[in-house]
Amino acid sequence: MADGPEGGQALLFLTDDQLRKGIEAMFFAYRGFTADPDRILADLAYGRAHHRAIHFIGRSPGTTVNNLLSILGVTKQSLNRVLRTLIEDGLVISEVGKTDKRERNLYLTEQGRALEQRLSDAQRDRMRAAYRAAGPEAVAGFRQVLEAMMDEDLHRHYRAMKDAKV
Amino acid sequence: MADGPEGGQALLFLTDDQLRKGIEAMFFAYRGFTADPDRILADLAYGRAHHRAIHFIGRSPGTTVNNLLSILGVTKQSLNRVLRTLIEDGLVISEVGKTDKRERNLYLTEQGRALEQRLSDAQRDRMRAAYRAAGPEAVAGFRQVLEAMMDEDLHRHYRAMKDAKV
DNA sequence: AATAATACGTCAGTGTTGTTGACATTCCAA
DNA sequence: TTGGAATGTCAACAACACTGACGTATTATT
């Protein structure tokens, strides 16, 4: 590569080598990101798919199956398998929609909230440590790059939830 | 950001809400991160496991199966299946180790390098767009947070490759 | 009222990727 | 040289995603 002498200075962070490092950082970091919840889930015979469902149902109580599908980006058959076990195990309840009876509104049960808490506590702990180690400015940059990396339709979902109150 | 009032100013980025946003950003961004290579791989009847193997073999030609295992964090049997198809398809060659004949040194063939290039071009394009949109300071922060999020053993691998020359 | 479209669930079949178990080969050290 | 450790391979199985097809209930359209 050897970006020319001067001139390109400001663009040094766009070299192939810098990009490769970013790609590998993303790969290794994501492993860490999921490691702690994965350990908890393994004991419960659940997988990441269950975690994701629980997370976003907890995040948007009353969400519909369709909405969840577009957030998670899986097929309804795949999601259904996960939801069925969560409902059978009493972590999630599915209510017929009020205004539109074709829809199902999904909620966490008390038990579901407990697991959600346990999982997100584990994940937050690591995230907190990373944030603390890197500092506020780094965190701002972190979020900026991630947002710029999202597909547009997912970015919409992200923005919608980002600004929602807890 | 519009950080709330005063007081905890410096620690506001460590609130649960900020951490949750980071977690969701990570989730959505990783989907974007893998989307482009995934599309290419789908046409070739390969998956992400193949991509990862090709990436790290291309990155460290002559690497052994064992080394690859510790980087990828899967069982050797799982990796072996992937390697076998790549070898059969002529993308990778496996040479008996010179000093230790138990080992296998892995290399990309010309064809393998071509696919590696195609995949990483696609992934780099998105990464480059994100970097460009976010700017150099944001990128530095991005990398800092990711590194702090890695498990220690993976961080070692990352550092080892980070500083290696192309 | 009849028809089309939407939301959800399910059954069947397939593919990738992870796992464990068993085994062959090679190296090394007692 | 013999036994154990390390390296890698083969086989069988489980988890989970996908496609495709279909059924049912409800809502929207004509």
UniProtKB/TrEMBL annotation, chains A, B:
<dbReference type="GO" id="GO:0003677">
    <property type="term" value="F:DNA binding"/>
</dbReference>
<dbReference type="InterPro" id="IPR036390">
    <property type="entry name" value="WH_DNA-bd_sf"/>
</dbReference>
<dbReference type="GO" id="GO:0006950">
    <property type="term" value="P:response to stress"/>
</dbReference>
<dbReference type="InterPro" id="IPR036388">
    <property type="entry name" value="WH-like_DNA-bd_sf"/>
</dbReference>
<keyword id="KW-0804">Transcription</keyword>
<keyword id="KW-0805">Transcription regulation</keyword>
<feature type="domain" description="HTH marR-type">
    <location>
        <begin position="16"/>
        <end position="151"/>
    </location>
</feature>
<dbReference type="InterPro" id="IPR039422">
    <property type="entry name" value="MarR/SlyA-like"/>
</dbReference>
<protein>
    <submittedName>
        <fullName>MarR family transcriptional regulator</fullName>
    </submittedName>
</protein>
<dbReference type="Pfam" id="PF12802">
    <property type="entry name" value="MarR_2"/>
</dbReference>
<dbReference type="InterPro" id="IPR023187">
    <property type="entry name" value="Tscrpt_reg_MarR-type_CS"/>
</dbReference>
<dbReference type="GO" id="GO:0003700">
    <property type="term" value="F:DNA-binding transcription factor activity"/>
</dbReference>
<dbReference type="InterPro" id="IPR000835">
    <property type="entry name" value="HTH_MarR-typ"/>
</dbReference>
<keyword id="KW-0238">DNA-binding</keyword>
